[in-house]
Amino acid sequence: MEEVTQINGTGISEAEIGAYWLEEDYIYPSEEFVRKAYIQNQPFLNKFKEENFPECFHEYANLLSWDRYWTTTLDSSNPPFWRWFVGGKLNACYNCVDRHLDKYKNKAAIIWVSESVDEPDRILTYQELYVKVNEFASLLLEMGLKAGDTVTFHLPMVPELPISMLACARLGIIHSEVFGGFSGQACGERIADSKSKILITIDGYYRSGKFIDHKANADIAVATAEKLGQKVEKVLIWTRHPGTYSSKTPLVEGRDLLLDDLMKKHRGKRVDYVPMPSESILFLMYTSGSTGKPKGCAHSTGGYLSYVAGTSKFIHDIHPEDVHWCMADIGWITGHSYIVYGPLANAATSVMYEGVPLYPNVNRVWRIAERLGVSILHTAPTAIRMLMRAGSNPTQYKCDFRLLVTVGEPIEPEVWRWYYKVVGKKGAVVLDTWWQTETGGWLCTTIPSVMPMKPGSAGPGALGIYPVIYDELGNEVLPGSGKAGNLCIKNPWPGRMLTIWGDPERLVKQYYEKYCKNRDSKDWRDWPYFSGDAATMAKDGYIRVLGRVDDVINVAGHRLGTKEIESAALTCEEVAEAAVVPKSDELRGHVPDLYVSLKSGYETDNKHLEDKIKQAISSIIGPIARPANVYVVSDMPKTRSGKIMRRILAAISNNREDYGDITTLVNPDVVEEIRNIVRGE
Ligand code: WT7
């Protein structure tokens, strides 16, 4: 058993990790899995040894079709702004669509499944995808858009989302998709930051059987963006039921355009793809960090696409005959990398499901998997826990999975085993993949055909990735020492974001400053990447990720910034101070607990206020950020310098006594008082 001595500042405790640490069993892949896998032997792995860096990543880049081959594999002259495959030109849409037509024209590229069990699937063959992407690209050209412009999408899980992404990619237009479940205001802030003049949205979509009027969000988004100085000239609106506008929100004359009408003119149009420099931006993906402002991770065309194509092929082991279903939303990085770009670059069939896993009943997932012959399933521990606890029963269905992926949060060995035994019938391998929005693709995972699995552990570094754990002082925490520390990556890799949109210095500050050995050095060895996660490394190099060390909360595999939630709470006039901490949750991993103190003159005993604050957070960020509890307290526990001690609040929320020393607080008495409020005493 490994002993954990230090976890992090946001309240994840040793007790909470519990049995997680006892698990050191190796489980080996089935012979059948190994027989079929792309990676069969050690020589292939040897190509990715440290001495072959960076040329090892030619294995990935050579999976793509380049209009012009690169001249420099890695330009590290301006660390940490690494540039990969410099001199090369390629087009992401061509690589994901056009080049497959020769062999796979009639093959399903995307199978879209409606949330309603009565609505037929929409299947797009590679040929159909090609036609639709070209038609939409033709419209984008007509709108005056060109390479280098940004366009924001606020789209749910509809086929028009990958069509829109690929049409932008075809022209070198930078797409910035905002998760459909985010509020109009959150979308507007991202429009303003990305400087998009065009918003692409939809009238509505289904969630748990209800039609959500999504166009209403577009009006809020545009108003928010305008307040922040960004004018949105046009809102392009797809329709959930093509041909019928189903939203109750009226169209704004001159600004809102229904794509059903506009597209008629573009039927049958073809548009040449634009070969883009390898280091040009393919898309932006906003994610939460330590400040209140989400950051736009700018991913590159050549490096990113190589990285997701390579990991999808060699690690994910997606073969053209696989049916791959990733249950993530395309509004998150997982969907960009492992529903759209990675699988399609490999001519795979990628399933998209509109709805939630438990709708309309606990076995919906297995019904879909059985009917479509899904061979690779890809989801988050939260979904697995939900299915497991809801009594979902995959064994009743003729599902035949080859590979099962888990991503987004730590998975408890108990949940891992259910996934492996009950869902995978011990024949499928389980891949626990650790990565981040910033990293573009997987960083820690086993290579399933040649490495055993270890329940609850994300495995060693992926091909060509060299993880290391550092303590706060920058000393390496040795593998097998049982000590936790900060998970870092020693070397650059092609999938890492190019920069943070509009704020390159933030890339340096947030990910490199902490462990940079020499700011003047041009040697990448002096610039390890700091992930913001705490982890341990076992003797075998396998990583166990414990959670964030910064002000980020992982709710059901979705990343939220505590500062963003706190700022949203502060918009309520009554609130003087707000502090968010993660509370363990059996299903969702963590949920946010919010503590607020009020301005003088406001009544603390006010149920209505709790609802008002929750509502404010839902509408400013989105329902996923809604706190589980709002506690109105007379004062926050504070240090003499006025810093709110979130660590103490986290301990109280999680019903733990390990507050540490509270005598240094200015107001130690408040701890007891808050504890009584939380316990309902
Ligand atoms: C954070 C990144 C990357 C896709 C989904 C989330 C946590 C991610 C794992 C895993 C334990 C994980 C980390 C990371 N995380 N994968 N396999 N085991 N934790 O992307 O929203 O950028 O969140 O998710 O804390 O830093 P994201």
From TrEMBL:
Signal peptide: none annotated. Its EC number is 6.2.1.1. InterPro entries: Ac_CoA_lig (IPR011904), ACAS_N (IPR032387), AMP-bd_C (IPR025110), AMP-bd_C_sf (IPR045851), AMP-binding_CS (IPR020845), AMP-dep_synth/lig_dom (IPR000873), ANL_N_sf (IPR042099). Residues 98-493 form the AMP-dependent synthetase/ligase domain. Belongs to the ATP-dependent AMP-binding enzyme family. GO terms for molecular function: acetate-CoA ligase activity; AMP binding; ATP binding. It holds the Pfam family ACAS_N. It comes from the Bacteria. One of its GO terms (biological process) is acetyl-CoA biosynthetic process from acetate. It comes from Thermodesulfobium narugense DSM 14796. Residues 51-96 form the Acetyl-coenzyme A synthetase N-terminal domain. Residues 564-643 form the AMP-binding enzyme C-terminal domain. This is Acetate--CoA ligase.
